[in-house]
Every structure is written in C-alpha cells, then in structure tokens.
Amino acid sequence: MAPLGGVKNTSRLTGERTVERTAAEEYLAGYRKILLDACATGRRLTRDEIEERRAEGVQAAEAGLALRELVRAHLAEARTVQGALPARSRDQLLTVVEQAVDAFAEGYERAQRLAVRQEEAARREFIDDLLYGGSDLGRLAERAERFGLRLSQAHAVAVAIGPEPYGDGYPVARGIETAVLARFGGQSTLLTTKDGRLICVAPGDKPDVLAFFAKQAYAATDGGRVAVGRSHPGPGGVVHSYQEALNALDLADRMALDDPVLHAADLLVYPVLARDRQAMADLVESTLGPLQQARGGAQPLIDTLTAYFDSGCVAVEAARRLSLSVRALTYRLERIETLTHIDPGEPSHRYTLQTAVIGARLLGWTAKE
C-alpha cells in the first residue's frame, strides 16, 4: 500500500500524531484503487465498494481510533491521488471521496451505536444484579470496578420517587445526576433508574452525597420523596440498603408519613412492631375493634388518636390539626375511653392504645372494616 501523503516524512507532525495516522492506514485498504478507478471512468461507487468502506469503518471504530483522524487520513490519501489523475478526471474526485467517506463514517457510527447499546445492556444487567443480588458476589465486585464502585467498602442507597416515573435520559433525572456529579465528582457514586425510581448508590462514609442527592431530587420533583437506607458493608450491602429504602417508602405510604426525606434508621421501630403480624392483628382487633360501634365508624376516632399522639398528647394542638374545637376533641377522647375502656390520657394505658393505632396503620386495618 502506498504511504499516506505527507505523513511519515513531515517534520511538523509530532510522534503521537504520526502513530495515529499510520494506524489509520490499515483502514484505507482498497481506498486508493477505488478513487483511481471511479475517477478514471467517471462512475459512482458500486454497492460492493460502499459496503467495503462501511466494513472498514466498523473495524476502525472497534479498534478505538478517532473518527477525526480517520477522516483526515482519507483526505490526505485523496490529495495524493489527485496528483496522479489527469486534469479531466479531477472534478470527479470530490464526488467519489464524499461517497467513500460517508460510507466509512456510516459504518463507524453504526459500530459506535452498537457499542453504546451493548454498554447500556451490560450496565443494566449489572445494576439489576447489584440491587437484587442475582449474581456471584465475587464476580459482582469485579464488574463493579468498571462502574466506579468498590464493593469491599460499605455503601448506602437512596431512592427517589416523584409525581412522574423517572427514566434514563429524562431531563429531571439527568439534571439531578449532573448536579450530584458536579458537586462530588465520581467518588464511587452510581446514579441510575429502576422501575420508575431514581437511585443513588454512595460510599457509606459519605452521607453528604446522599443528603445532597435527596435535596436535589425533592427540589426537582415538586412533591417527590426520598428514602435513604442504612450503610452496610460488602457486596451484599447495596442490596440490603436498597431494600431498606424501598421498605421505608412503602411504610411511609401505609403510615401516611409526610416527611419528604425518610431515613430507614429512624423507622426501625415499625418493622419490629410488624414482625409478628398475627400478634399485631390481635392487638388491633381487641383494642380498636370496639370503636367500630361509634357513629361514623372507627376511622374518625382513629384519626383523632393519631393526631393526639402525634402532637405529644396536647389537646389544643391535636384539635388544631383536626380543625376541631378543643371541646369536640375532648368529647371524642371520652367516647374512645367509653368504648375501649382505655384512657388515652393515662400514661400506663397510652402505650397499648398508641401501639394499636400504629398497628392499624401498618396493617391497613381500617380499610378492612
């Protein structure tokens, strides 16, 4: 193959540039002959010639060469051919070069798109295994390094939900990811989406990353919510923290919690209470069952107890939260005591009643009336 014009003997080119241009020569196989033949006959490239240039473009992309250097090499080769052509054939050269370079670039871009899709598929598979533990943990740790995570460290996971599902490439998700990465850089942080949720995985010793993520997610969604799991060590730590965050979101729905940011560490009492569901169901039924005899059912009285306990058993504050007069609230509390034989204001009785109210919310008991 003839050397590219001005490549190896031009002193102004750096050594690095010379290596890149020389590497590009491998993907010009047959290109000079195509130019000479097409220009000599005045024809356009044949289908086989175009496909040949596409195939070379695919191989060049797979080899990791830069498209700009490859195009420059094509143009340099065309200049050497131009000098060998008779004057009457030179007008055809530009048309043929345009066809050849376009076909080469098409093959290059096709390979790039395929590589991107394969990378996305590999990333999605890794994320599924990371969040659900569906792979050998040793192998998972090896794959994690490719995505900037060191699973030998402890990690914590934050999960954000919004009024609309999150998706890869959505403006809101992209904006949050950009803000987090701009603030903290890589720092072994991974942002992704799963089942319409936005997820951030960060080292367990960097809680400020997840705090910033939660702030950005809440601000961007205008009504969204973020749950943060606890930090756990090892490859399985991400799975554990992720499940804690999901459970916190589910718990917030069942308990009607209105906090925009939930920390699993602050909600540990609820899983403990719900661990023995049968015992909790018995407590709820025996303690709150009599409230169903009230006019209007049990729900208004349970709402009264919820507001009363949430306000620290301060009747004035509870009445304000329920938009009731203090007298009306007091009447409801007396009615509760009459039906259950438990005084909400008596400290020794309050724990049983409050636990039953929490259990009713955990079990969705009032919905089963």
Largest sheet: 5 strands, mixed
State mean pLDDT (0 to 100 scale): 83
The third-level CATH topology of the largest domain is Alpha-Beta Plaits
- Using the CA coordinates, give the radius of gyration: 34 Å
Main structural class: alpha+beta
Low-confidence stretches: 1-21
Helix and strand run: HHHHHHEHEEHEHEHHHHHH
Pfam families: GGDEF_2, HTH_30
Organism: Streptomyces virginiae (Streptomyces cinnamonensis)
Family: Belongs to the CdaR family.
Domain PucR C-terminal helix-turn-helix: 301-357
What would you note in describing this structure?
With 369 residues, the protein is α+β, with helices and mostly antiparallel strands. It folds into 3 domains: 15-117; 152-267, Alpha-Beta Plaits (2-Layer Sandwich); 272-368, Arc Repressor Mutant, subunit A (Orthogonal Bundle), CATH 1.10.10.2840. The chain is built from 15 helices and 5 strands. It has helices at residues 15-25, 31-41, 47-62, 67-84, 90-132, 137-146, 171-184, 207-221, 237-255, 269-274, 277-288, 299-310, 315-322, 326-340, 347-363; strands spanning 155-161, 190-194, 197-203, 225-228, 261-263. Strands 2-3-1-4-5 form a 5-stranded mixed sheet, sandwiched between helices. Strand 2 and strand 3 form a beta hairpin. The chain is elongated, with a radius of gyration of 34 Å. Residues 1-21 have low confidence and may be disordered.
